[in-house]
Amino acid sequence: MLRTTLALALAATLAACATSSPDVISRNDAQRMSTVVDATVLTVRPVVVDGSQSGAGAATGAVLGGIAGSSVGGRRESVAVGVIGAVAGAVAGNAIERASTREESLEILVQLKNGERRAIVQAKGNETFKPGDAVILVTTGGKVRVSLNPVPGAAGKPEPVPAQRY
Known about the structure:
The chain is α+β, with helices and mostly antiparallel strands. It starts with a helix and ends in an 18-residue tail after the last strand. The chain has helices at 2-15, 56-70, 75-100; strands at 35-49, 103-112, 117-123, 134-140, 143-148. It has two domains: 1-19 and 51-101, no CATH class; 33-50 and 103-157, CATH 2.40.50. It has a five-stranded antiparallel sheet, with no helix packed on it. 33% of the residues lie in helices and 27% in strands. Pfam families: Rick_17kDa_Anti. Residues 1-18 form the signal peptide. Keywords: Signal. This is Glycine zipper 2TM domain-containing protein.
């Protein structure tokens, strides 16, 4: 019971880690001007972004495993089992961190208007891309995300967007 509770607590902690989802914008990127470039999708293929191993999972697992192990047996046994618990917890915590930060993603190959090609890997979001789709590449703070082009007729020549008066 205790072991299950500790594993769930560790998994919940690690699940709050960063994501590369195009639908989640970093707080640091909010209220910043972004560069937008028109492009056309050439290919889309599913990929997996490997999970991170920052050490946070191993450290958390080691602490929890050490605490759980040290509460077993008498004085001598509790030290030995605590050390074994810490090592086992570190291994388990590292594996949980890696698995919980792994993301199903897309590699999207696009062609810019000037003929140059770019490949962008991003987590699967709410939009579905297929070859021939008009898209925009939004660059903010060195990070790029792909989004469907909201401008009508964007596959060919972009139509001008009427100015709004305030």
